[in-house]
Specification:
By secondary structure, this protein is mainly alpha-helical. It is built from 4 helices and no strands.
C-alpha cells in the first residue's frame, strides 16, 4: 500500500468516525429536532455519489469510507424521519 492510499484511509477514518457520536446520541436520546432533514438528504446523496465514484475508480479509501459513512448517515436520516 502506497503512502497516498494510507493518507486517504486516514482521512476516510477521521471523516467516517465523526458521524458515530451523532448516531449514538440520537439512538440514546431519541431526539432529532436539532438535525436538518434537508442537510442530511443532500449529505446522503453526496455520499452515495462519492461511493459510486470510488467504485468506478476502484479507489479503496473512497469505497470504504463512503460505504461506512453511508450506513451511519442512513441510520441518522432514518431516525430523523422516525423521531422528527
Amino acid at each position: 500500500m502506497d503512502f497516498i492510499t494510507i493518507i486517504g484511509l486516514l482521512a476516510a477514518t477521521c471523516t467516517t468516525v465523526s458521524f458515530v457520536p451523532q448516531a449514538i446520541k440520537i439512538i440514546k436520546v431519541r431526539e432529532t429536532r436539532d438535525i436538518s432533514l434537508l442537510t442530511y438528504l443532500f449529505l446522503e446523496i453526496g455520499i452515495f455519489l462519492w461511493l459510486v465514484y470510488g467504485l468506478y475508480l476502484g479507489n479503496l479509501p473512497l469505497i470504504v469510507a463512503n460505504t461506512i459513512t453511508l450506513i451511519f448517515t442512513t441510520i441518522i436520516l432514518g431516525l430523523k424521519i422516525r423521531f422528527g
